[in-house]
Structure formats: structure tokens, C-alpha cells
């Protein structure tokens, strides 16, 4: 058993008449009791944690190279189209029930509210929205290709902050541009993205072209945007591993921060201090491109509110602005007892997102992978894309506690330079800062979602382009990559594809 688990007990000795057989039965009974209480099962000479009723599913974690365990025993070795959609092995049956319900909420499309359906499950789409389901933007729990009308969203704000320190919504178009409306409610308009080309050369003279996006909002239904309006296009993120991110202690994240660059390495990561709309307090942001949400529940509720126009106990109002009369008077799915996305459904969604398994690493001993991993660290990429950390010990679900994970991120904000800037502050993140993107599972993106569109607005079409867009704190690492021989550049990309 785990050395941290105290299974010692004090028993009265058996009488001589009872004999050794009774003592043996007693010892066996105690052992069985310990195994039942503490949830462990013997496997060979190793004690395998038996969280649920299928401990045989845990055997694989003894057999693989430990370096391939991206998320400890929350790792999956399914590498096909469904590689992002796997439930973790041997999940407790009570949590599995929540997981399955959450899966249903994630995949189902919301429907337009009617008088007969008011307050029912999946009722209350819009009235102005972007997508009818979570699955629309997160196809197969991954990243739907970020193009207008499919997987690309546009955040909108004006200078200043809202009542809790976040972005100040546009007085007419709110905080997110809605390009779809239910019948009788005009959509806010349409999103168009055009690209300009930026030419460059590697150190060996090989040319490359980067595509810089420009977002325009057209066919505006409620009047002009006005001067000072800030727009930020956002691509989807993959959904696996979120429970482990939530389980990280604040102290772990703060220990990696160096806001004043005290060590002089040019890296000065810091957390985004955001408002927790559920706890009503300031907290460290963990989720989203600028780390704007602190928990899975607030992230889920925020996405439902902005992307689908669905209210919840955390965001109970509709997204309609004062100028949008048809939106404000349309039927909605709220009733006196519940919002369109109930507290129970939020908790089921939390379980689903917490226990989607993280893809493991492959090809660990391939020479190019090993060389790429060395270069990734030596040129400075690992300063922000931190390889390994351990989750804390107080998460609600014990399965998430004390797990060694390899997300390749520090979850902190970093200045990425003017090239990637959206010039739109959000809480304590300024217009050039972005959360370090996790890299675990990134090598499976093309297999799962059929593309390799990367960065916050999907501008990068390849791993190479994503690296070449880095600036600010990552300028030195980017330049080291750009000037490296082609064989070294290829090795770094091969390493990334192994994650």
C-alpha cells in the first residue's frame, strides 16, 4: 500500500483454543477490509490503485514508459479520431454517472425556447448566439477549425473595465459578437477575416510566409461599432485534462511566476487575477487564451452564456443589450425555479471535462524526437512551456490529487510582443499578454480535427508558423529556432508531434 496510508490497527490476541486457523482468517479479513476501505488491489508485486470497479484497466500504467504518461493514470493511449474523447480508466461509478450526463450536455444542441418547453432540458438557445452546442466549436472534444461561422468567435469591448475588473462590454454589441439569431431576432452581423502576407527567411535563406489576420464585422444590425471598439478573434481549445489544471494549487502557479524577471532570464510570467463569478472573489485565472476563468464551472457557464446565449446560476441574465429589442422580448428558457443551464447540469459538465483523459506521448526513443526535446529545452521554449508539475491534495475528486502531469505550460501570462497582440486588456492581462498554451496532445490535433491551425486566432497553419509568430519574452527562443539548421528545426517539430 501507499506509504502515506496508515492501515495499522490494534486487535486483542486470539485464545490458544482458537488456534492458528482463526488467526489466519482474522488477518485475511483485516487485509480485505483495508483493501476495500482504501480502494487498492494487488497486481503482481505492485499495489494498483482501484478507483472504480475495473482495476484491470490500470495495469497499462505499470507497463508503459513513465515518460509517456502525460497525466499519470488519467492518460489515454488511444491515438485515433477519438483520442481526445476518452473517459479516464477505472473511474468511480458515481463520477462516471456524472461524466456520462455531462457528455450528453456537451454534445446536445440547445433548442429555441417555446411556451410549452420553457424550463426543460436544452431549452433556451440564443436569442443571439454563435453555436447551438459545445460540440460545434469543440468537435470530438478538440478544436473545430477556426473559421467564421464555425469555430471562430470574436470578443468585443470598449476602453475601461466592467464592475468586476474585466473587459467593458460594447454598449450595443455586448462582450461577444453574435453572428446567429433565432427566427425574428436579427443576428448582430457577420464576421469576415482577411489575411495579409508577411515574408521572412530562415537563417539558411529558406523563405517562409506568415498570414496576419484582420477581423471585420459586417452587416451590422444595430448600428456602427463606434471609435475605440476593441476586437479579439478566438479559436477553440481542446477540452481534455481540465480537471488536472483545476487541481493545481495556487502556490504551484505562483511559484513559477516571476513578474519582475528577478532571475534575469527575460521571462516574467504572472497569473491573470480574475473575478470568480461563483465565489464572488478574486482568483487566479486558469482557463482560456488569456486565463480569464478560474474554474471549470465558471468557464463552462461563461461559454454557454456567450457562445449559445444560455443562462445559468453563475450568469443568470440573457445576453441581450438594451438596443436589441427583439432579443429582449423573445421567449427564453428560464422559469421561476431554474436557469437554462442548471446547477446540476453544470456539475455534470464539470465532471465530464475533469475526466476526459489526456493523450500520452509516443515515439519517445525516436532519434529525432529525442534531439528535438533537447533543443526545445536548450533554446528556451521550456522556460514557459514547463514540462512537469504536480497537482495539489485538496480537490473535490481524489482522483485528481497528487498527480504528476506534463502539460508543457506554466498557465501564466507572458508578453508575446506586438505581432500577436490583440490590444484588448482582460482583467490584469494587457493587450500583448497571453497564457502559455498547453502542448500536451497537440501532436494528435490533425488526426482528431483535420487541421493544425494554432495560436489564439488560428493564424498559424503549421507548428513552424506558430513558433515564428512568437515575440516579446519568447523572441530569443523564436530567433534561435529561425536561425537553426533545418535538421534542428525539423527535430523540434517532430518532438512537438510526439506530445
Detailed description of the structure:
This protein is an alpha+beta fold and 499 residues long. Strands 6-5-10 form a three-stranded antiparallel beta sheet, with no helix packed on it. Strands 1-2 form a two-stranded antiparallel sheet. It is 26% helix and 15% strand. The longest helix is centred in the N-terminal third of the chain and has 20 residues, at 19-38.
Strand order of the largest sheet: 6-5-10
Radius of gyration (CA) equals 25 Å
Pick out the low-confidence regions. Answer: 1-49
Roughly how much helix do the residues carry, as a percent range?
25-40%
Structural class: alpha+beta
In total, how many beta strands? 17
Q: What share of residues are in beta strands?
A: 5-15%
Q: How far from one another are the termini? A: 32 Å
Observed structural traits:
26% helix; alpha+beta; three-stranded antiparallel beta sheet
Explain the layout of strands and helices.
Blueprint lengths: L18 H20 L1 E4 L2 E4 L10 H4 L11 E2 L16 H15 L20 E2 L4 H4 L15 E9 L5 E2 L11 E2 L8 E12 L5 E12 L11 E5 L7 H5 L3 H7 L16 E4 L4 E4 L11 H13 L16 H5 L13 H12 L3 E2 L7 H12 L10 E2 L13 E2 L7 E3 L17 E3 L9 H5 L13 H6 L6 H9 L2 H12 L2
Parallel strand pairs: 3-13
Antiparallel strand pairs: 1-2, 4-7, 5-6, 5-10, 8-9, 11-12, 14-15, 16-17
Helix pairs in contact: 3-9, 7-9, 10-14
Structure summary:
The protein has 499 residues and is of the alpha+beta class.
